[in-house]
């Protein structure tokens, strides 16, 4: 017999959050391109999108710096070179910021 909760909406939202976390965990570890694509499609279908900000300006409020890459091009200074670990957003709420490598102007 299943216990009846006083707040079924709250329980459903908590269970949704748990499933999203599980899917993000599985996506991080999946080796099959097909599995990654299917997980990403499923998350997208419920409003969760991957964050891969390559080529945009680094913003510490939105991104986590995992490292830097030296550049001689001043226009690239502070631009994200690549995403090391995907981030995720649930509609407009960041669930996990992406971990990125940022171009840094080489000191002469």
Automatic annotation (TrEMBL):
GO molecular function, one term: protein homodimerization activity
Key words, A-Z: Chaperone
Any single biological process term in GO: protein folding
Domain of life of the native organism: Bacteria
Protein name: Nucleotide exchange factor GrpE
Source organism of the structure: Saccharopolyspora hirsuta
